[in-house]
Design a protein that fits this description.
The protein is of the alpha+beta class. The protein has one domain: Lipoprotein localisation LolA/LolB/LppX (outer membrane lipoprotein receptor (LolB), chain A), CATH 2.50.20.10. The protein contains three helices and eleven strands; from the N terminus they run ααβββββββββββα. It has helices spanning about 1-15, 25-35, 195-200; strands at about 40-50, 55-60, 65-75, 75-80, 85-90, 95-100, 120-130, 130-140, 145-155, 155-165, 170-180. Strands 6-5-4-3-2-1-11-10-9-8-7 form an eleven-stranded antiparallel β-sheet, covered by helices on one side. Strand 2 (about 55-60) and strand 3 (about 65-75) form a beta hairpin. The longest helix has 15 residues, at about 1-15. It starts with a helix and ends with a helix.
Length: about 200
């Protein structure tokens, strides 16, 4: 009887824990390999700010070095990251402003070689319920906030980003209709003369 109980207990433990859970480093490596495999990405997005305000638009990524956030509702705004420059266009004001890149942790998605180590520190990495969740921060600026990346597991796909600022306020961005490795026009990542935007709007 004792032997029978031992066999039953072993069977229960075996089926309850059929495999050894991946370590944090292994999960981070899986995400790193996935992100480095993306050359271009296009998606619709829904952004929810700290106060619950919602914005929608389109997101474009072309590695290395290029990101485009095209906000459509409720306010039309265009943000383009191209190499070392961030350009911001406000349709309502018809005004373009520029700033050096490097202040936004999410910019690392456009790096030539994405590393979840070195300048970037992994705070946590978990895989459960069909999702992979990784939270990272800047190694030398840990007090300036962090970024959480959420992926589906099968197939692996970037689904969501959560940006937490220094005041611990969260901005969530959910991606839908993702498409990868498309041939994206170079003009998408070039900020044009604001007067061209104005002419385009008045032509409709």
């Amino acid at each position: 009887m004792t032997q029978y109980k031992t066999i039953v207990l072993f069977a229960v433990l075996f089926f309850a824990f059929p495999c050894v859970a991946e370590t944090q480093d292994e999960i981070a490596q899986k995400a790193e390999d996935y992100l480095n495999g993306i050359k271009t990405m296009q998606a619709d997005f829904l952004q929810v700010g700290p106060s619950g305000d919602e914005s929608t638009g389109k997101f474009y990524l072309s590695r290395p070095g290029k990101i485009r956030w095209e906000y459509e509702m409720p306010s039309r705004i265009l943000i383009i990251i191209n190499g070392s420059l961030v350009s911001y266009y406000d349709y309502e004001l018809n005004q373009v402003s520029h700033a050096p890149s490097g202040s936004n942790l999410a910019e690392f998605l456009a790096h030539d070689k994405i590393l979840l180590s070195g300048d970037v520190k992994v705070l946590s990495a978990a895989e459960e319920f069909g999702l992979i969740t990784i939270t990272i921060t800047q190694s030398k600026k840990t007090d300036e906030g962090n970024l959480t990346l959420i992926f589906s597991d099968s197939p692996m796909m970037l689904k969501k980003m959560i940006v937490t600022d220094a005041a611990e306020k969260e901005t969530q961005v959910t991606f839908e209709n993702q498409a990868f490795d498309l041939s994206l026009e170079k003009d998408l990542f070039i900020m044009k003369d604001p007067n061209l935007f104005k002419k385009k709007d008045t032509s409709h």
